[in-house]
Fold this protein.
Amino acid sequence: MSKTVSALFDHYSEASAAVKDLEAIGIGRDEISIVASNAHGQHHAEARSDHTGLGSGTAAGAAIGGAGGLLAGLGLLAIPGLGPVVAAGWLAATAVGAGVGAAAGAATGGIVDALKNAGHSDEDANFYAEGIRRGGTLVSAKAPEDRIAEAEAILRRHKAVDRETRVTAYRNSGWTRFDASAPAYSSEEIERERATYGTVTDRF
């Protein structure tokens, strides 16, 4: 029996460290997904085969450097409502739909439905999608029963966003749920958003 454990991070560096630790405890790359905003353009594409399971496309290479495991297969794509993202793993494949390549531009599909299909509540799925839209990085892992507590501890240790606190902040600004038809956040809007929470831009 496995459970999908997920967490939102304000910075890619925190999320990528969490992914590496999840792999280190034996959770396979096929069981982990990462979806990160690329509004700042920090992930650069290089022409090579995509290893995300999304089909042939481009992979984010130069900015990631010597990343291994799941992180080595990050693909550049667009998901409705999120704008440009880099992603790898089963969650991204579900969100964009079978047979859609990472280079396909504005892919069809839905991140909220993908998260709900993975076992998250409607409220959590909308929160995670909105968090990516606002510049965050989502990590989701299908953890076996004997690794659930350890996986959750890893996500917390790497400074995962406190869900309740952030949802309250979103709602206080008038947010109710993720809207895939709304424009994606620009890099400037993301900077202002992060400043609200006392964080700084992740420059690797």
Notes: The longest helix spans residues 12-24. The radius of gyration is 15 Å. The mean pLDDT is 80. The beta strands are 2-9, 32-37, 45-46, 59-60, 75-79, 83-88, 137-144.
